[in-house]
Design a protein that fits this description.
The complex is a heterodimer of chains A (390) and B (168). With 390 residues, chain A is α/β, with parallel strands linked by helices. Chain A has two domains: 207 residues, Rossmann fold, CATH 3.40.50.2000; 174 residues, Rossmann fold (3-Layer(aba) Sandwich), CATH 3.40.50.2000. Chain A contains 15 helices and 17 strands. In chain A, the strands form four sheets. In chain A, strands 3-2-1-6-8-9-10 form a seven-stranded parallel β-sheet, with helices on both faces. In chain A, strands 13-12-11-14-15-16 form a six-stranded parallel β-sheet, sandwiched between helices. The longest helix of chain A has 16 residues. The two termini of chain A are 38 Å apart. The relative contact order of chain A is 0.13. In chain B, helix 1 packs antiparallel against helix 2, helix 1 packs antiparallel against helix 4 and helix 2 runs antiparallel to helix 3. The longest helix of chain B has 54 residues. Chain B is rod-shaped and about 90 Å long. Classes of the chains: A alpha/beta (390), B mainly alpha (168). At the A-B interface, helix 4 and helix 14 of A face helix 1 and helix 4 of B.
Amino acid sequence: MKELNIGLVCPYGWDTPGGVQIHIKELAEWLISHGHRVSVLAPVTDEEALSEPWLVSAGRPIPIPYNGAVARVIFGPLASSRVKQWIAQGDFDLLHLHEPAIPSLSLLAGWAGEGAMVATFHASISRHKTMNVIGNGLNPFVERITAKIAVSETARQTLKNRFETEAVVIPNGINLRKFENSPAKAEWVSPNTIGFIGRFEEPRKGLQVLIDAIPEIIKSKPDLKILVAGPGDFEDFAKKIPDHILRHITYVGRLSEEDKGKFFKSIALYVAPNTGGESFGIILAEAMSCRTPIVASDLPAFTALLDDGKSGALFRNEDSGDLAKKIVTLLDAETNRSAVAQAGYEKAMTFDWDVVGSQILSVYELALVGNDRVRLSSDNRFWNRLRSND
Amino acid sequence: MTKTILIIVFALLLGAWYLSFLASRLDRLHHRVETSWEHLDALLQRRAAIALEISHFAAIDPATSFLLTAAAYQAREANIIERSDAESALSETLKLIRTEEMAATTASESDILAGLVRITEKIAVGITIHTEAVNTARNLRSQFLFRTFRLAGHAPLPMRYAFEDDIL
């Protein structure tokens, strides 16, 4: 395939950690390592701290509540003009928009650009009535997108319900070699250590469900240790937790990518008690690639990722009693645990970047057919055409 | 009086602008229907060629080879009406060869098999994009404004191909 010049658009603040941002970063790196040129447009809080040469800032993101979490996005006239400038100067073969159906940079780029456009839909959104109304208004926009990618079967279904549109399912890529040689960290290793990573203050991440399960687990595992990692104010969060429970919990702060590998290699079990809003569970796949056994809530996305419980254990969503039971069973059965971990590892291998990246490239190839380079759609309006003919 | 005329003129202009917006939406979709079909067609032709090559493999028994050759020729020669049936038949026949069992008799043969896997993946994406374009275009054309103002012009109605979901 010939060398492509690709423009990627990230809707969320680049310096806030999140699955979409990491996906875009790794996709960009994979594409560059395969000889393509890439430019990423994203909202950035601290422009001084940027390290990636291919990143272009669209301004500071604004936090807005969206889908039960806080999304750091950007829109408005200033962002809009930056998007146009980026498209005009970029001379792209193709635009790849991420999560374009929310009010964000991706939506702006999709309106401003004309040509080959691929969009990846990450979220599975609960079917709010208001969302459907907005969905109808977005139809002309969704039509402009040449090829749509959903990161999971649930995300594809969401898309189908909202816009009656069909998408190709390509999962998020994981850099499996990233954690391959991570060592375990001695201070985190103990036989009954359970890990949790995420913005613990957000209810839908479900840390409370895990905390409610602790009294039941310590009946048979008094040396239980729960390692919590992720951004947020833990001291504030811990105030609500009674002391005899809190002493089983250790907060290790926000993890660097390097420490994340060590984290997974150290713990005996990884628990994902999320109560909703997940469409894939990239963190689970990362844990699986480290051969860490998983216990996760039975959200559709997790059920699919864990092959109905073959590649990891599932518990009834928001049911702390069931969670405690599943955790104790797995901690007790060493052989079962390593079988689950092995199955999880093999499942995770199908998300390796080399597999996922070449699938994305074939979507690009098909989207490019019959399209010239990406231009500004305003160049195409007839009064602008008249003017340029003078 | 002039005010009323102005309002009417403005409303007419707005209406005209909206219709041209709708027409350009439909035009873009028609364009996509054509280009995505051309590309899909090319991919399917390449698949038929690969199927013919596989039918000459030493490891293939004569009966399978015969079936494969026949299916590949039918897919190549099919006219528009028979096309989707012929392609589905070729997909079915290709399923008969288990890629794992066939594993590499010679290097060039394993190259061809890998090529088949790649092209199968692309065809799946191509079908999604094409059927999507056809459905959206047909859906728009059936809407009131599009019919009343004949926004489709002389463009032929995009044809639906009966690609089965499990075609590959």
